[in-house]
Amino acid sequence: MKIFNTLEEIDNIEETVVALGNFDGVHKGHQQIILRTVKSAEAAGLKSAVFTFSNHPKNLMAGKTVVKNILYPEEKASIIEKLGVDYMFNIPFDESILTMDPIDFIEHLLLEKFHMRQAYCGFNYHFGYKASGTAETLMKEGMKRGFGIHIQEPFEIDGNLVSSTFIRKLIQNGQVDQCMKYMGRLYSIGGEVVVGNKLGRTIGFPTSNIMIDETMVTPPNGVYVTYCVYNGVRYPSITNVGVKPTIGTYHKNVETHIFNFDKELYGKMIRVEFLQKTRDEQKFESVEALSRQITDDCITARSFHRRIAGTY
Questions:
Q1: Residue 151's closest CA among 33, 31, 61, 283?
Q2: CATH, residue 94
Q3: What is the β-pairing status of strands 233-242 and 148-152?
Q4: What pLDDT, in 10s, does the model give residues 256-292?
């Protein structure tokens, strides 16, 4: 998949079938749009493309981060590539696009830049100045200009409209066990392992710590059954998200204990995949009481892992 990060990079490409949307979660609804795009492109002998933005439009309009990311940029690109897409137009949402007339958006971006012959989008797709362009706008212009438009109706699972907003709420409420159903993968947090206070090592539970990226949506403070992915291998683990109230004042971070693992990970990149929340973070009366609770938490997490993956 070829990724274009600016409009200036796009020059004289082949004709395309384009999936239109922010695709900030690449959830199952998004995946259906993209897969239909890929199949149509293959059938028509055209290139498949995804047109998305490298930043969330609402954040530009608000002048600050009001919508947090579900995926890291490289993660989003990787998922889209695995769906078979040829081109990814990963363009910054800036003032020129914010204020662009919807007809100019269609003419100068979709047709002139992307050489679009067909497009797929969700029923609630909006574009152009004050988001005044809609899926219906695309339908009308398509009839005039000779390009095809395919609109996906609301995509529901178990009566819930699948959307990035819905998935953010699941994560923020600690319902990480529901993410697989709607995203088709586990919710995860990644980062470089940093030096912590090393208390876990002294009480028999060494941990790998990664700092919270403030641009990413995160679950509430608590203890979670997790996998830790390092160097392409998934290890059963248990994770505390929080501020460690028993031992002092700390910024919120992600602290993971990997079962049956003795490698040093400082400075290494890991990804923590969340399976189930087991309890809220709490302040204990002593480190000894905390240690006893961690022992119980590990027993719970090991039991969970055995149920889902067999004995390890």
A1: 33
A2: 3.40.50.620
A3: unpaired
A4: 999 999 888 999 999 999 999 999 999 888 889 999 9
